[in-house]
Here is the input.
Amino acid sequence: MRQLPISSDRLDIVKFFIEGLGQHLSCYRRRLLLDIVPTLLHNFSREFFVEQFLPAILKVFIGEYYFHFKFILAQFGSNI
Here is the structure.
């Protein structure tokens, strides 16, 4: 992917992952986005990954695990 000099090609790939997987109704598709993060980091520069992918990935991660974090915080109270 680093070899794709045309930014429109790279942005099409970003759009697919963010809109096609990250915003999908199926939790399995959203989880797939989280599972391919190592591959994305390998194929894109870190700067490009942080600018383009990280906000969407964090949104998926927080959305998927928000309930679990909330439960854990309730169990430990303010001791964390």
Notes: The helical segments are 7-22, 27-35, 37-43, 46-52, 54-76. The chain is about 80% helix and 0% strand. The chain has a mean pLDDT of 76.
